[in-house]
Amino acid sequence: SPVVLQQIMDGNNGECLGVMGGAGGRYLIEEYRRGSTGNMPGCHVTDVVVQFWNALDGGDEERAMRIYKEMAPLFFFEHQLSGCYKEVLFRRGVIDCPKKRNGKMPLDDVSSKYLDEILKDLEPIMTWGK
């Protein structure tokens, strides 16, 4: 969490070169403002999180906030359906099959349609395959 990241940074005696945030970019703005030196993005939207980080690192907080707002529906969707990463990678053309090892598909028809809508809104800032 951003607060834990801050506690680590505050307790650093100089031996720690930096702390990376996680959660796929969900807390990236707050983590960055607290001194995060990087982020561990979700593999399905790494290209978007790179733009998000670069906007923050370049001082363009307005663009960073726009990207965050565009990503927020996906963050919420992922939290609800944690197995959707492979489905996103499949829909983006990164992998050939979205099946999971346990054979279960995480999306029903309603969720599938909603994911399509989310990805359509994110498409302008997705760079893979362009």
Descriptive keywords:
mainly alpha; globular; 2 strands; 6 helices; 130 residues; two-stranded parallel ribbon
Work out the strand percent.
Answer: under 5%
Order of helices and strands: HEHEHHHH
How many domains? 2
Global geometry = globular
The average pLDDT value, as a whole number, equals 89
Q: What's the total helix number?
A: 6
- C-alpha termini separation: 33 Å
Which assembly state applies to the chains in this document? single chain
Largest sheet: 2 strands, parallel
Task: Pick out the low-confidence regions.
Answer: none
- Helix/strand/pairing class, anyone? mainly alpha
Number of strands: 2
Describe the structure.
Helices cover 52% and strands 3% of the residues. By secondary structure, it is mainly alpha-helical. The longest helix is centred in the middle third of the chain and has 20 residues, at 61-80. The protein contains 6 helices and 2 strands; from the N terminus they run αβαβαααα. The chain has 2 domains: 1-40, no CATH class; 44-130, no CATH class. It is globular and about 50 Å long. The relative contact order is 0.12. Helix 3 packs antiparallel against helix 4 and helix 4 packs antiparallel against helix 6 (109-122).
Brief overview, please?
By secondary structure, the protein is mainly alpha-helical.
Please outline the helices and strands:
Blueprint: H1 2-10, E1 20-21, H2 28-33, E2 38-39, H3 46-57, H4 61-80, H5 85-91, H6 109-122
Helix pairs in contact: 3-4, 4-6
